[in-house]
Give the backbone structure.
Amino acid sequence: MANEEKEGLEKIGTALDEIKDGIEAERKEVKDLKDELEKAQSEIEDFSETVKSLEDENAQLREYSEDLKEKIEDVKEIGKSLQEIETEIKDLKTKEFQIVTPDSLDKAIYKDAAKFFKDLRNGTLEKSVNESTGSQGGYFIPTPISDKIVDLSVNYGIARKYATILPMKSYTLKVNTLDTVTSAFLDAGSSITARNITAGQVTFTAKKAGTLIDFDSEWLEDTTPEIAEAILRMVAKGLARIEDHAAFIADGDDDSTDGEHTGLLENSDIGSVTLADGSVYFSNVTWGKIGDLIDAVTAENLERPLFIMNRTMRSVLRNLNITSEFGPPFKPSDTKDVDTIWGYPVEYSSLFPSTASSDSDEVGKPFIVFGDMASLGFAERRELTVKQDYKISTDQVQVLTTERFNIRPLNDNAFARLITASS
């Protein structure tokens, strides 16, 4: 009996172990299923994020697609415009029109000038209604040609290049000049007190000046555009020279040399700085005196500052650089840029006194000008005229080109001149 009970208990134990093992297996299987479920949920979440990202990208692609469609439409419109332009160009070519460039414009002007000088030589130009008739008559130079002469003259002269150009509608021009302006702060509610402004007036009276050039008769009879360009350049050089003479060295005489102009070098109304006693030569100039020359022009009058002198002074200034304690104030340029003195530009004119002159010519003589070229008034009537005279003895033609202008300072305080000592 006891054995049977024992066997029964063993069977029960074995059954319980099997049940336990089964439960553990079920637990493991449930755990595995749970892990797989969590993994699946994670994959679903990743998939959802991927789907959302794809949806966002798809939305962006739709936006890009719309932008692309608009750009395609723009390109189509541009294409239509280009086709229209191409058609217009073909039409222009068909009508034998030319696209104008600066070079082609100059060539056209020189071509017209060639015809103008041929007609001048042949006597087939229409006489100007504003000039006397007969051998003393003159002809207006057509505006494009006269404008070209003026443009070329800027390359050869200083006055026209830097001065303030004042167009003249008649032969007299009056210009008011503002010498001083008084300014002040005003208290709130206070009345404004009228203040006097000192104003002057400069009167410009057009003076007739001209340049005379001799040509071989055949030169004008066979004028080509290239010859015409050479003629215009010679005329421009001549006009630039007489303009600079009036602006800088004329002494005020009412004659064919000065035309009643007083140049800056001869103008005693502007500032003056004199070299030390005994410094009677241009080479005696010092940096101290050049500094005094700059100081003689007030700061508010330096809108367009400029030194003007003869090129022979260049070597004098280079030698001064060697003895300067503060570094070289004079900086010559190795390129087409202008030289400078303490940063102020320098222009050279052959009309100014040269160091190559005799010693006696340098005593008590102004030789450098400094000032604000914007304060130099250049009043002009842009009506260039030309006339010719045939010289039968030499078979040459004299061509006289004339202009009317007047040059004078708008403000005497804007300029100063440097003068050698008188003894």
Q: What stands out?
A: The radius of gyration is 45 Å. The CA atoms of residues 275 and 420 lie 5 Å apart. The helical segments are 2-94, 102-122, 143-153, 159-162, 217-221, 225-249, 287-295, 313-323.
